[in-house]
Amino acid sequence: MPYQQLPLPDPPLPALLRQLDFDRMARYRECLDFYQGRHWPGRPRRGERRLTFNYARAVVDKVTGYLLAGASVQVAGDETPAGLERARRAERALRRVEAANGVSQLDFETELDCAVLGDGAYRVAWDAAAGEVRITAPDVQGIFAWRDPADPNRLTAVAHRYRAGEEELIEYWTPGGFELWRGSTLEERLPNPYGFIPYVVFPNVREPKQAWGSSDIPPLMEANRELNRAFSQLSQVLELSGNPIAVLEGVTGSEDITVEPGAIWEVPEDARAYLLDLLQGGGVALHTAYIDLLYRVLHDLGESPRTAFGHNPQGLSGVALNTELDPIARKVERKRRIRTAVYERRAWMVLQLLARFEGLEVEGLRPVMQWGPVLPADRSRQVQDARQLVESGIISRRTAAASLGIDDPEAEAARVREEAG
């Protein structure tokens, strides 16, 4: 797309961004606060006990761990020997970029952030000083996106606001142009050096007819808050039961009345003294039954059965265990449908930059996302199934290796040949 010199926006871009997405930013702050353990509103009353058990964070971390299991991007080309060789070279180059940028750790941190806030972003750019591709995950709270009304998945412009020291910088990208704002001053306006917007902006889970995604946190908020209240109440009851309240009836004074082993009380003949038993009538059992009910609600709303946290008193295995874990598997599959396009697009950007700045041949090549199994699987059975598919000509050895969680099938195959030779 040819670069067109556009007039400055009115109001200028920095002022315009300050007027956008108030509701989205408020949702981000609320979800982030809850994830970080700020569950109680306002200041505590005098003597009020507030226990916080951050189950929302535990559920988000658990689902993210399942999401990224066995994730890798392969490069596919045509089936000619030359096409396969170009695909292998491109894949090796992609692995080099991933290793240089610590992509495994970056992806986990970004997915956590995306699950909490509801949206995520990657930036893929060429670092001229270092002579390499740089993959980063900008804070989505500083990302503003404009989309094609006919296709919300297609970005027409992206503004990225961030701080560098004491200064606020804004990068504004369109397919044809690039602007850099320093504070409220336009410092640079250039043609886009890449030919594409170097950002991938994506939702955690899609909301129908909505451009931005939804967080994993809101469904858990009320149940987690009620669980905190229930635990706090039970804790206070148990503390008071361990330090019982002395009840005196028909007594006008209470000097020298202490609750301790061997204590003797002198009270009038018609008076009555006793210790208040807060545990009588099965009170604790009612509290624990309610807490167990809240546990169930929390795990149901989070689509994360307690079995996913190691709670398996029935010793389930095989199909029975997979059925028990099916809710978390379905949740992960919904996210993976979105992430497949995200990681393939990011890999495509990396290959395009390598082609432009290093001369890598990428014509006819396409990134293909590979995912490992969500649920625990019989490794020997997986190997047997993959072998049968390869021998039947249904899949290639590279695809089989990728399905078994091998990040770099070509390098692994070379090591096998080396050991055999």
Order of helices and strands: HHHEHHEEEEEEEEEEHEEHHHEHHH
Total of DSSP H or I helical runs spanning 4+ residues? 12
The tally of domains stands at 3
Helix content: 40-55%
List low-pLDDT spans.
Answer: 1-6
The main pleated sheet reads as: 5 strands, antiparallel
Count of beta strands: 14
In what range is the share of β-strand residues?
Answer: 15-25%
Spatial separation of the terminal alpha carbons? 52 Å
Organism: Tepidiforma flava
InterPro entries: Portal_protein_SPP1_Gp6-like (IPR021145)
Pfam family, one: SPP1_portal
Protein name: Phage portal protein
Question: How is this structure best described in words?
Answer:
By secondary structure, the chain is an alpha+beta fold. The protein has helices at 13-17, 22-35, 55-67, 81-100, 103-117, 218-242, 283-301, 318-324, 326-358, 379-391, 397-403, 409-420; strands at residues 72-76, 119-127, 132-136, 143-148, 151-164, 167-173, 177-182, 185-191, 199-203, 205-206, 213-214, 245-249, 272-276, 366-370. The protein has a five-stranded antiparallel beta sheet with strand order 4-5-6-7-8. β4 and β5 (151-164) form a beta hairpin. The longest helix has 33 residues, at 326-358. The chain is flat. It starts with 12 loop residues before the first helix and ends with a helix. Residues 1-6 have low confidence and may be disordered.
